[in-house]
């Protein structure tokens, strides 16, 4: 209670200009991308509702609705809207909360709930009556574990990339071996390269 909530990482955000309704391009954090972005369709404001649905799911149980170490399988999950509410983490989450998430994670953007509609959803506007007030310590624990795994994966990928770049640069700087050096390394005789016309 009373903890500050900070919104960050707007590096890929697009400022809405006038009455523009559609954007194009492929950018974003993999687990938060909407199906229409992954399909490379024109997209609009519903992508933000999708991302908020992912965030709400994470806040309630501490792990994301879509997750796979393989990015292709992750994207397949997202495009199919393939997520569930596994036990026991979701057993104490109210039906209203799940209904809101379902409305936000609707694959068809035309049928996805809007921001105005979400603000009128019972789980939002009738929180005193329908939302659970239980302190979800298990959610905090799950979130810490997920973040630790995510950071570890990021560190491993960074190390692999740095190693690959170093190896590439080292190879580029290494002089090509002479025929004599190659022959010495393999035990073969180096070919005679003198000019026969000198005899």
Automatic annotation (TrEMBL):
Residues of the Protein kinase domain: 1-124
SMART domains: S_TKc
Alphabetical list of Pfam families matching this protein: Pkinase (PF00069)
Region (Disordered): 166-199
InterPro entries xref list: Kinase-like_dom_sf, Prot_kinase_dom
UniProt superkingdom: Eukaryota
Biased composition (Low complexity): 167-190
GO MF, one example: ATP binding
Record-given protein name: Protein kinase domain-containing protein
Source species: Oppiella nova
């Amino acid at each position: 209670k009373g903890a500050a909530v900070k919104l960050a990482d707007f590096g890929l955000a697009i400022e809405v200009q006038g009455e523009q309704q559609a954007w194009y391009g492929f950018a974003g954090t993999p687990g938060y991308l909407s199906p229409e972005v992954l399909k490379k369709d024109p997209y609009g404001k519903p992508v933000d509702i999708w991302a908020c649905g992912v965030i709400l799911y994470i806040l309630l149980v501490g792990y994301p609705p879509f997750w796979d170490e393989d990015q292709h399988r992750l994207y397949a999950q997202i495009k199919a809207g393939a997520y569930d509410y596994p036990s026991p983490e979701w057993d104490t989450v109210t039906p209203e909360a799940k209904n809101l998430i379902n409305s936000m994670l609707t694959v068809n953007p035309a049928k996805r709930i809007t921001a105005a509609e979400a603000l009128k959803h019972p789980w939002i506007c009738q929180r005193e009556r329908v939302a659970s007030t239980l302190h979800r310590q298990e959610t905090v624990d799950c979130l810490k574990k997920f973040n630790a795994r995510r950071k570890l994966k990021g560190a491993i990928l960074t190390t692999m990339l740095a190693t690959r770049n170093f190896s590439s640069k080292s190879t580029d700087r290494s002089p090509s071996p002479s025929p004599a050096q190659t022959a010495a390394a393999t035990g073969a005789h180096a070919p005679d390269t003198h000019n026969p016309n000198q005899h």
